[in-house]
Give the backbone structure.
Amino acid sequence: MSTYRVEVTREGKWWMVAIPELDGLTQARRLSESDLMAREYIAVTTGTALADVTVDITVKVDGIDAGNRAAEIRREREAAAKLEAQALAESKRLAHDLADLEVPVRDIGELLGVTFQRASQLVNS
């Protein structure tokens, strides 16, 4: 099973799906259809089973490498979500530690930069 490089670009209302290795071109109405359109084109052209065709798609719109930029944004979101989860866990630990030392919930909220209601949720979680 080999992986084919696919270049997807926008032309008018259509996504043009180019497969340079086969000098092939097809189109899709929606970007989400480009993977299947490319794989079907490759399968028919090479006589390969559709399930055995894999593609590596690059998406460019008017010179903008949208695919790579979107992938970087997804990586940044994943990293932010991990940091958010770590911050929440540490906030809970601090809230519990301070509550065990009888620090008022309002003051815990002030320290953590959250409302006293949120501080209460952290203490009781």
